[in-house]
Amino acid sequence: MSIEIRVPQLPESVADATLVAWRKQPGQAVSRDENLADLETDKVVLEVPAPINGVLREIKVQTGTSVKSGELLAVIEEGAAASATSKAGAAPGNGKSAAAAASAAAAPAAAARTGPAARRVIEENSLEPASIPASAPAGRITKSDAVRAAAAVAAAPAAPAARAPQTPAVPAPARAGRAEQRVAMTRLRARIAERLIQAQSTQALLTTFNEVDLSSVQELRARYKEGFEKKHGVKLGFMSFFVKASIEALKRFPVVNASVENSDIVYHEYFDIGVAVSTERGLMVPVLRDADAMSFAEVEQGIANYAARARTGSITLEDLTGGTFSITNGGIFGSLMSTPIVNAPQSAILGMHKIQERPVVVNGQVAIRPMMYLAVTYDHRIIDGREAVQFLVTIKDCLEDPGRLLLGV
């Protein structure tokens, strides 16, 4: 019996998706719940699982095509056996070798080591995944790896055609670094670009800075990190301190937790904190719901879970929607100072940066302390400079004296 495979119901806010990769080819056996294809929206990558055991008989939509909910993608033959060409070499005269069949059988394994963006570059440039050096953990090929490999292939000299012997000409000096690659934006990257431009064109963005001495936070982490990890199964990082300090500051300055809707200011009486996560496909900002009710351990567990799912492509649209305030940490990449852009329709975002030991004056004496520059970018239409500065000072005070977070003072 033939079973039609159709595009699953897309989230309400998503009009269509792009089919970025087929994980199975016609003639190959498939198992129930095995992923057949990847569909990329402007926020997440969706998988298309097989509903039954059988054989993929026909693909109706090619890679790179835009599809909508319910559209026919492929046909599976229930209970059928895989074709001979998917298991061994084809019969003589059919134009396919055993090597080609083996290569096709290895394709799913190679695809498992690549993300959708990397696969697109590999397919567009006819690259062999096995020949691409992988820079990510577990031998995973990133988009940057694929682009570098494509550039190397483009820059490599072509094999000379056979011709009669002749006196070799003196070659012109080779010029390296002249290769170009044109790669279409992924839907996520295009959406990120659209939202950033929208934020800058519709909000009056301004950034204020301060610096924080993280000596007390580092001391607290060093004292309790082993017991914390043993009890909760997650490391005690810096982000939970910054989330908790931000919530305390948001409580004192509610307008920073607000948003603009037409000519109204919407004050949110809850604290849904977005935490920026960098992935191969681009920046994602999953949201910690009701973060004020979370413990330090729950914050750390939530962030770790979101980061893992974002990087494996299993994060959902619901995880990314909403949010009343965001935090981004450029310090993990070495950034000393930056001006983050607000994640509209929110009205403010906190930027964390690299922790760097610097000489500072403490009680009239010069001391070396672990310092971090903080930045808060805010929508000046509703947030005044006084409120933004005091908001950042509150975060600074909470981090320099973490006891405030426990006592609420």
Write the layout of secondary structure elements.
Elements: E1 2-6, E2 17-22, E3 29-30, E4 35-40, E5 45-49, E6 54-59, E7 66-67, E8 72-78, H1 98-112, H2 116-124, H3 143-155, H4 187-202, E9 205-213, H5 215-232, H6 239-252, E10 259-261, E11 264-266, E12 273-275, E13 277-279, E14 282-284, E15 287-288, H7 296-312, H8 317-320, E16 325-329, E17 348-352, E18 356-362, E19 365-379, H9 385-400, H10 403-407
Parallel strand pairs: 12-16, 16-17
Antiparallel strand pairs: 1-8, 2-4, 2-7, 3-6, 4-5, 6-8, 9-19, 10-11, 12-15, 13-14, 17-19, 18-19
Question: Can you tell me about this structure?
Answer:
By secondary structure, the chain is of the alpha+beta class. It folds into three domains: 2-112, OB fold (Dihydrolipoamide Acetyltransferase, E2P), CATH 2.40.50; 116-154, Dihydrolipoamide Transferase; 206-407, Chloramphenicol Acetyltransferase. It is 31% helix and 24% strand. The strands form five sheets. Strands 9, 12, 15, 16, 17, 18 and 19 form a seven-stranded mixed sheet that branches. It has a four-stranded antiparallel sheet with strand order 1-8-6-3, with no helix packed on it. A four-stranded antiparallel sheet has the order 5-4-2-7, covered by helices on one side. A hairpin with a 2-residue loop joins strand 13 and strand 14. Helix 6 (239-252) packs across helix 9. The longest helix has 18 residues, at 215-232. It is globular. The chain starts with a strand and ends with a helix. Residues 84-106 have low confidence and may be disordered.
Structural class of the secondary structure composition?
alpha+beta
Number of strand elements: 19
Question: Which geometry do the CA atoms define?
Answer: globular
Query: CATH topology of the largest domain, anyone?
Result: Chloramphenicol Acetyltransferase
